[in-house]
Design goal:
- The protein has 440 residues and is an all-alpha fold.
- It has two domains: 1-230, no CATH class; 242-440, no CATH class.
- 85% of the residues lie in helices and 0% in strands.
- The protein has helices at residues 13-28, 30-42, 47-65, 69-84, 87-110, 112-122, 127-140, 144-159, 163-187, 191-213, 226-229, 232-264, 268-304, 308-344, 348-380, 384-409, 411-439.
- Helix 4 (69-84) packs parallel to helix 8, helix 9 packs antiparallel against helix 10 (191-213) and helix 12 runs antiparallel to helix 17 (411-439).
- The longest helix has 37 residues, at 268-304.
- The chain starts with 12 loop residues before the first helix and ends with a helix.
- Mean pLDDT is 91; it is low at 1-7.
Length: 440
């Protein structure tokens, strides 16, 4: 069943901004929650609780990150169904991603004991920190089904250009989490377990809010059309898309991990400076995500409608705003980069080291722009095999750049290699773009 009213409309600058701005605002709230978690347990006056919350959160975030493909894959598939005017498939996709979230989260709960044990073997800590972190994870892990399902809900909302809903969902979860943190930790004195309970309840309440935002899909019977939901061809397609994105993401993570490990060879000061400067890349990602998500939704709808001119305009308009944002970021890093570093690191040696490598951060937003925007374009078109293959090629180019540049230029060479990997990913995906249009 299709509905012509779901066909893509004209791609305007206002439409792109309407999608992008709520995502940017939503991303701004992400680091705030971590700061509140740390600040609340910090009021206990002991170091161990801070370390326990940080360690436990990092472990669970890493596990949940594996399922981040659900957000990206859902956006591309749902946007294409939207572009086709296929309401039944849009609803069925929502049911599928919720089921994946519940099954994956349930599996994590079942293997929690060996999972926690393995985490402390990889990242050992003091007995006190490990005990507190184990208690934290043992509580919070019970919200794994909700946390993973929210990935799918977020992607589904983005596909329909409902990014205000994504912002509402993020603000709701963070607001509940912060309020319960104060109540449980400072009010009831529950310590680290209080932080875990706050996040547990915030994630389940976030799932409830997400389902409320998707309520229109549940008013029609298509969401429970089990023959469609379990249609083999569509399940295989979803698995293929998601596995490609997972491999691509693992390769990207390997690049960043190797960057940190290689940076450690240059000493503690350089390692700390690199960690501070990586925050500039995260800021860049938070800012450019909104326009990449715009490309995902608009390109996906255009592909579903088989409208190449609309697809091309969606790619160009979203990328134009991304370029403007990248230039603003580069200019801001040039003007205020040292001030930002001074806020994040009080150690003078770290500040001086970071200042030496800061020019690479000025270049980073512009050099990374194409990789961000083409990721969005290819996700919307579900050309995920190209994303996987070009990421693998970029990883090889990065490795070659490391071997050539690091022995000659040291940590400067390491930053050069990282930026080369971004540029390579953008360039290789750009080379595959004509094939994307031909396929449509």
């Amino acid at each position: 069943m299709t509905d012509a009213t779901l066909a893509p409309r004209e791609v305007t600058h206002a439409r792109v901004l309407k999608i992008a701005f709520p995502i940017v605002l939503s991303n701004v709230t992400i680091p705030i929650l971590g700061a509140v978690d740390t600040g609340v347990v910090g009021q206990m006056g002991e170091a161990a609780p801070i370390g326990a919350v940080g360690l436990g959160a990092i472990v669970l975030s890493a596990v949940y990150w594996i399922f981040g493909f659900l957000r990206m894959g859902t956006t591309g598939l749902a946007a294409q169904a939207q572009g086709q005017g296929n309401r039944a498939e849009v609803a069925a996709i929502l049911t599928r991603v919720l089921m994946i979230g519940f099954v994956a989260g349930g599996a994590i709960i079942l293997v929690q004991t060996p999972l926690i044990w393995a985490a402390f073997r990889l990242a050992p800590a003091s007995d006190e920190v490990e005990t507190l972190a184990s208690g934290y994870m043992a509580i919070r892990i019970w919200s794994a089904p909700a946390a993973i399902a929210i990935f799918g809900i977020t992607g589904w909302l983005i596909a329909q250009e409902r990014t205000r809903g994504v912002l509402v969902l993020q603000l709701w979860m963070n607001g509940v989490n912060v309020a319960l943190n104060f109540l449980f930790v400072l009010g009831f004195g529950w310590g680290v377990n209080g932080v875990a309970f706050a996040t547990f309840l915030a994630e389940w309440s976030g799932l409830a809010m997400g389902l409320y935002l998707c309520r229109a899909a549940f008013r029609v019977p298509d969401w429970r059309n089990w023959a469609r939901v379990f249609e083999r061809a569509r399940l295989v397609r979803m698995a293929q898309v998601n596995s490609d994105i997972l491999i691509r993401s693992l390769l990207l993570q390997m690049i960043f991990l190797s960057f940190m490990f290689l940076g450690a060879d240059f000493g503690d000061v350089t390692l700390a400076a690199n960690q501070v400067l990586l925050q500039f890349l995260y800021i860049t990602a938070y800012a450019l995500d909104g326009f990449a998500f715009s490309a995902e939704a608009l390109v996906g709808q255009a592909v579903g409608a088989r409208a190449v001119p609309t697809l091309r305009r969606a790619a160009i308009v979203s990328s134009a705003w991304g370029l403007g944002s990248a230039l603003v970021l580069a200019f801001g890093f040039w003007l205020f980069g040292n001030d930002i570093v001074a806020v994040m690191a009080k150690n003078i040696e770290v500040q001086e080291a970071a200042a030496a490598y800061l020019p690479w951060m000025v270049c980073a937003p512009v050099l990374a722009l194409a990789s961000f925007m083409f990721d969005g374009i290819f996700i919307g078109a579900t050309r995920t095999a190209d994303m996987r293959n070009m990421m693998a090629l970029s990883a090889v180019i990065y490795a070659a750049a490391v071997l050539v540049l690091v022995p000659v230029y040291g940590n400067h060479g390491l930053w050069m290699a990282l930026l080369v990997s971004f540029a390579a990913r953008g360039a290789t995906l750009a080379a595959r773009y004509p094939a994307l249009e031909r396929a449509v």
